[in-house]
Write a structure and sequence with these properties.
It holds the Pfam family TfoX_N. This is TfoX/Sxy family protein. It comes from Hominiventricola filiformis. InterPro entries: TfoX_N. The chain has about 100 residues and is an alpha+beta fold. The chain has a single domain, classed as Yope Regulator, Chain: A. Helices cover about 25% and strands about 25% of the residues. The protein has three helices and six strands, in the order αββββαββα. It has a six-stranded antiparallel beta sheet with strand order 1-2-3-4-6-5. The longest helix has 11 residues.
Length: about 100
């Protein structure tokens, strides 16, 4: 099942307190970027984020789920209704995210 544009719009609205936030559609899903780095995505209308240490620490009880078959597991963000938490989560993760790969 692909993600809906409505769910993407909802999550982007929840994160509207952050600058330099963007998304890119990819195979029916959405990759999410903050300040040029991928922090997660929307897969089957679920917000999943990379399992960097600070994200694990901020959501110790969160489940891990693969975004699609065969992929590395990511953290399922259940608390998408808490705008302040979401913004703090993404901002906190930025330092620990890998640098953007240059594709030549």
């Amino acid at each position: 099942m692909a993600s809906t544009k409505e769910y993407l719009d909802f999550v982007m609205e929840q994160l509207s307190g952050l600058d330099e936030l963007s998304s890119r559609a990819m195979m029916g899903e959405y990759i999410l970027y903050y300040r040029g780095k991928v922090f997660g995505g929307i897969y089957d209308d679920r917000l999943l984020v990379k399992p960097v240490p600070v994200a694990v620490k901020m959501m110790p009880d969160a489940g891990m789920e693969p975004p699609y078959d065969g992929a590395k597991e990511m953290i399922l963000v259940d608390n998408v209704d808490d705008q302040q938490f979401l913004c703090e989560l993404v901002e906190s993760m930025w330092e620990e995210l890998p640098e953007k790969k240059n594709i030549h």
